[in-house]
């Protein structure tokens, strides 16, 4: 008989955030992401970052963003709806954060 409860060890979002923080502190954040995410999930994450970046930039319509990124308009709309759940301070932070991360070209 197992003494361990019949629940997963990792069942809380904050536990996962802590895993990423620890992996980052150890310089293993990329490794952890590669282990946890399939290639398709990694591509989806790249698309999601670009969706937020484009929406916050405000220069393109959702249809143009959809064409640019090769994702459906519904995917853009979901990203837009997610941004609406956050106040202007958070949206401004994300916009500035993403701008700072852009490759210099």
Rounded radius of gyration (Å) = 17 Å
For the sheet with most strands, the description reads: none
- In which range does the helix fraction lie? over 70%
Structural class: mainly alpha
Give the number of helices: 6
- How many strands? 0
Low-confidence runs of at least 5 consecutive residues: none
Name the beta content range.
under 5%
Distance between the termini: 61 Å
Main location: cytoplasm
Protein name: Trp operon repressor homolog
Family: Belongs to the TrpR family.
Function: This protein is an aporepressor. When complexed with L-tryptophan it binds the operator region of the trp operon and prevents the initiation of transcription.
Characterise the protein shown here.
- This protein is an all-alpha fold and 105 residues long.
- It has six helices and no strands.
- It has helices spanning 13-25, 29-36, 39-57, 62-69, 73-84, 88-101.
- Helix 1 packs across helix 2 (29-36), helix 3 (39-57) crosses helix 6 and helix 4 (62-69) crosses helix 5.
- It is globular and about 50 Å long.
Label this structure with key terms.
single chain; about 100 residues; mainly alpha; 6 helices; about 70% helix; Trp operon repressor homolog; Trp_repress_bac; DNA-binding; repressor; transcription
